[in-house]
Amino acid sequence: MVTPALYLLVGKEEFLKKEFSQNLKKSIFKNSSELNLNFQEFDAESGGFSAFRDFLQTAPFLSEKRLAILTGIDDLGEEE
Fold first, then answer.
1. pTM
2. Is residue 19 within a helix (H) or strand (E), and if so which, with residue range?
3. Judging by beta carbons within 10 Å of its beta carbon (0-12, 13-18, 19+), is residue 40 exposed, middle or buried?
4. Cα 33–6–37 angle (5° rounding)?
5. In the chain, beta strands by DSSP E
6. Those residues with Cβ within 8 angstroms of residue 24's Cβ, 6 or more apart along the chain or in another chain
7. Is the Cα torsion angle 24, 28, 32, 35 positive or negative in sign?
8. Alpha-carbon distance 10 to 55, whole Å?
9. Tens of pLDDT along the chain (80 residues)?
């Protein structure tokens, strides 16, 4: 069984956050087909939170894990 993990990247250094995300993708997905089917980025500012949640609730396809990145979380309301 795969244990869920959550990484919260906070700060103004966008380059470091992107670099961490790239390294995480490389460590989780060994080939591009796994990456294409099980990785997605969402923007909370444009209403992507519900799509983000739906993506994470879906089982991985041809892989053990899924990875979703949500940006713009500063603009989420309390209910989200």
1. 0.77
2. helix 14-28
3. middle
4. 15
5. 39-43, 67-71
6. 7, 67
7. negative
8. 22
9. 566 788 888 888 889 999 999 999 999 998 888 999 999 999 887 877 889 889 989 999 888 899 999 888 776 667 76
